[in-house]
Amino acid sequence: MNTLTAVQKQSIIGYDHKSFFIHGKRVFLSSAAIHYFRMPKEEWREVLVKAKLAGMNCVDTYFAWNVHEPNEGEWHFEGDADCGAFLDLCAELGLWVIARPGPFICAEWDFGGFPWWLGKKQGIRFREYNEVYLKYVDLYFDRIAAIVRTRQITSGGSVILVQVENEYGYLGSDEQGRAYLEHLRDGLLSRGIDVPLITCVGGVEGAIEGANFWSGADHHYAQLAQKQPDTPKVVTEFWTGWFEHWGAPAATQKTPQLYEKRMFEIAQAGFSGISHYMFFGGTNFAGYGGRTVGASDIFMVTSYDYDAPLNEYGRTTPKYFTAKRFSYFIRAVEPFLLASEPLDAAGIRVTGGLKVRGRRLQDQTLLFVESAKQERETFHLTMENGKTIPVIVNPGEIVPVLVAVEISEGVRFTCNTSIGCNEIVDGIRTLIVYAKDGQRSLVELEADEEIRMTGERPLLATQGSNGRSLSFDFYHFKEPQRVELAIGGEPLRIIVLSAEEMDRTWRVGEGQWLFGSGDVSLMPGSDGQYRVFASETVGSLPQPPALKSWSSATMELASLQGVSMEQPQDFSSFSQPFGYLLYSSKIEREFEGWTTLILPKLQDTARVYVNGAEAALIREVGSASLKIRLHKGENRLQLLVQNMGRLNFSPYLGEAKGLFETGYLDGSALDLRKGWETAEKTVVHLDQAGHVEGNPVLSRSFRIEGKDRAALVGAIAAPLRINGAEVPLEGYQNWFANQSVDISAFVREGDNLIEMPYVKAPIQRLELLAYRAADAIPAWSMASVDDGRPNADSAGHSGIGAPAWHTCEFASPTLPGAVHAKLKLRLTGMSKGTIWLNGINLGRYWQIGPQEDYKVPMAWLKENNVLVLFDEEGRSPEQVRLLFDEQSGRVWAHKQNFISNELGRSGTDADL
Predict the structure, then answer these.
(1) Do residues 504 and 374 share a domain?
(2) 578 lies in the same domain as 633
(3) For residue 719, is the peptide bond before it cis, meaning its omega torsion is within 30 degrees of 0?
(4) CB-based contacts of 343: which residues, under 8 Å, 6+ apart?
């Protein structure tokens, strides 16, 4: 039992309005968002070490309830779900942890982290003070809090903060959520959580609120400062990239250059912590990819790469080095930065086109200099004391400038570019100064005692007449430069690097640095101990396993034996979490011809078959319609529905998945996007680009003839009125841009009038579906489809057009010990389906982009492996192949020295 007093706990971790204190020292939290459940356990160490090598001192992780309790009462905390082991590894590596147990996590994760079976509970309402909901939340908290409690920093672990819920403020005010959030807060406290509690986007008394954003740092800081003036300001989610969904462009719009600028904006605003969401995104294996608002079919791809600093395979990207440079800079100026106050820059004179912000501590200054020019220029700053400093700034870039900042007692440092190190390395105070290749920098030292050059004198160095100042004009060559000094008998080393060489420089431990190496990681040596390895050279890519001798089997739609019922059931009611369901019905027609099928309640993509032949793939869901041709007599209608992921963010969490109301024949579908009018009779077409000033109310008429049921689906705007009556849209916000509403009670035979405010154009969908209750399809059967293994009723492959399984065996690759390969699957030529490896569901695939390659974890390979593809169209797998990623060609070598030979000093191995 933890017997520490409140005072003792405060001495371990505390805070004021500027920052957190850990063991009495102010800390800037450089946190990497990494989710243990999005990769195999075997990959944890590599990803965490790479985060630490990038200067991260903290890890932020959600805990996914649905991973730990996939079925009610079945708890899993072993293997890849061993979150306690993940926290222990963070502690072993010296990384603090921000624990975010939810219970709601969003995270683009199925159901926002809630287990599928929770949606079956009668009377449940999510993210509210609801007795049914909170009963199960408390049972979850009993389990997860016990794991976190013993790993808090107050109990010898490294968990420093625990989050209450997640982003509640996006859907409701603090007052609306007060009772609910207080229950969660008190539940954590009563279960032994004694480190500070935090929230993000919305708050509760007793918790420190953070902000989630990509841009607008000043705005978010001001909001937090007004709401909680006495707490530290942290960015609980700084969005390094974005998620991707099927059929959308690649989400690669946040460039490394803009990423760097946004981080400097956060620092200049006064934040004392950044959690990079995501630092490593990972993968939505199995059915865990979620769904979000904005359209009816925004379903997450299997990859959660997120365009993050570490990609889905754990490889470094350009953003990784951007984050690394910034975090190294923060560490170098951390004591000054966290003690300083905002600077009034009015007294600093600047040349045109320059914007200056800054922070000051007594006579020490840090400036953030931003250019509004169209090309790189050398600007000049003149400080209040008349000192003029040149600074080179690229368009849109922010450059830090240090002016008389104390780097050690009695030594002040001025520099017009970034620094990457200010610490004792091998017994010597070491500064790293770097700038983009081919640029110059000004470095000045002032000291209370004499400054002497003990090494070779740089060509452009000027000593002050009193011997206590020294100025350098450095050119940043590709080759490192070293300046050796002594100040009052104490040695000082300045290392001058290009930005490229800075990316090859690593802080591998306290006072331990490695220079001149490519990517660095900790990997097991021949004796099983973890040591520093670096990718020194690039060899030829190893040959991936070949996929040959596929065997295929077609799913016989007519032969699947289902369960008979009057109405189709959703996935959860049918007790199936993910995968596929086949819905079948028989329809008698007195004549041959086309009819419009209406499906009022369908929440997933559906492949429709009529008499065994595919008729359509429904993508726009919520409510759907399609034209089908039926012949006279008996017809067989079948829908193969894949659960594409539950909403991970919405007021409508827990939506039924699949088809959960019968279909109706002889309906009608009307596109309502054209022909709207303002009160002034201006015509507005909502399917065309445009803008209408003032967001006026628009109106449009429509007719209903011979129908007694109607649904409105698509980009509805609230308030919505039909024939003068307002249609309830509880929880709906216009930016959701999609809703399906039963408006049967509001329409009438003949002419009708619909009114709603203008929000935006163009919109993707706005349809009126009308039908008769009397035309309902009377009976159905439902069958579960085992998409991971051909069933007994499957036959040999009969070609494209029917779903099929394709199976292939391959041997694991034999790789040299110096090769650290990552394997992926490219599904050229396939349609839509699922991937299985050795009985493990690797996730959904859909060859409409943006995802092309699918991660195959090396940890899940056996000596001999079985790959199964379930393809909805039965397309041939002859073009499918395994590939190693581009960085698999690197050759990794054990590094004996922490400081490379050209810098003249060596250290020791970094065994763990």
Answers:
(1) yes
(2) yes
(3) yes
(4) 357, 358, 359, 360, 365, 366, 367
Q: What is the Cβ-side half-sphere exposure of residue 448, based on CA atoms within 13 angstroms?
A: 7
The CATH number of the domain holding residue 370 is 2.102.20.10
Domain that holds residue 386: 334-517
Q: How many angstroms separate the most distant Cα atoms in the chain?
A: 108
Catalytic residue (choose from 237, 265, 501, 872): 237
Q: Which residues contact 119 (CB under 8 A, 6 or more apart)?
A: 111, 572, 646, 654, 656
| Residue % of the chain over a pLDDT of 70 | 96
Q: What are 87-144's pLDDT values in tens digits? A: 999 999 999 999 999 999 999 999 999 999 999 999 999 999 999 999 999 999 999 9
Same domain, 824 and 889: yes
Distance of CA 663 to the CA centre of its chain: 37
Question: Is residue 230 assigned to a domain?
Answer: yes
One domain, residues 756 and 853: no
Residue 23 in domain: no
Under a CB-based contact definition with an 8 Å cutoff, are residues 650 and 292 in contact? yes
Which regions of the chain are under pLDDT 70? 1-2, 522-530, 792-795, 798, 896-912
Report d(CA 119, CA 811) in Å as an integer.
Answer: 42
241 in helix, strand or coil? coil
Q: Are 550 and 577 within one domain?
A: no
The residue out of 734, 758, 785 marking a domain boundary is 785
Tell me, yes or no, if the pTM score tops 0.85: yes
Count CB atoms within 10 A of the CB of residue 757.
15
Residues 657 and 781 occupy one common structural domain:
yes
CA angle at 784 for the pair 778 and 790, rounded to the nearest 5°: 135
CB–CB of 658/571 below 8 Å?
yes
The CA-based angle 544-545-550, given to 5 degrees, is 140
Q: Is 682 helix (H, G, I), strand (E, B) or coil?
A: coil
Identity (one letter) of the amino acid at 177?
G
Sequence-separated (6 or more) residues with CB below 8 Å from residue 10: none
Residue 364 makes CB contacts below 8 A (sequence gap 6+) with: 336, 340, 403, 404, 405, 406, 412
Q: With 0-12 CB in 10 A as exposed, 13-18 as middle and 19+ as buried, what is 865?
A: middle
CATH number at residue 729: 2.60.120.260
Chain-centre distance for alpha carbon 209: 20
Please count the structural domains in the chain: 5
The verdict on 56 and 179 lying in the same domain is yes
Quote the CA–CA distance of 873 and 613 in Å, as a whole number: 11
Residue 9 forms part of a structural domain: no
Number of neighbouring beta carbons within 10 Å of residue 875? 22
Q: Is 878 a catalytic residue?
A: no
CATH number for the domain that contains residue 819: 2.60.120
Whether 340 contacts 360, CB under 8 Å? yes
Contacts of 481 (CB under 8 A, 6+ apart): 458, 474, 495, 496
Could you read off the pLDDT of 343-379 as tens digits, one per residue? Answer: 998 899 998 889 999 999 999 999 999 999 999 999 9
Q: Measure Cα distances from 677 to 390, 690, 709, 759 in Å.
A: 59, 14, 26, 14
Q: What CATH number is attached to the domain comprising 198?
A: 3.20.20.80
Instruction: Determine which one of 167, 209, 312, 620 is catalytic.
Output: 167
Q: How many angstroms separate the CA atoms of 11 and 704, rounded?
A: 72
| Residue 278 sits in the same domain as residue 391 | no
Q: Residue with structure tokens 């243990």?
A: 36
In the residue annotation, 237 being an active-site residue is answered as yes
Q: Which of 714, 739, 771 is the last residue of a domain?
A: 771
- Return the half-sphere exposure (C-beta side, CA atoms, 13 A cut-off) of residue 712: 25
Helix axis angle, 256-269 to 217-227, nearest 10°: 30
| Residue 271 in tokens | 């934040």
Tokens of 460: 């452009």
Residue 860 domain-assigned (yes or no)? yes
- The per-residue b/e assignment along 556-568, b for 16 or more CB within 10 angstroms, e otherwise, is ebeebeeeeeeeb
Phi, psi of 166 (to 5 degrees): -170, 120
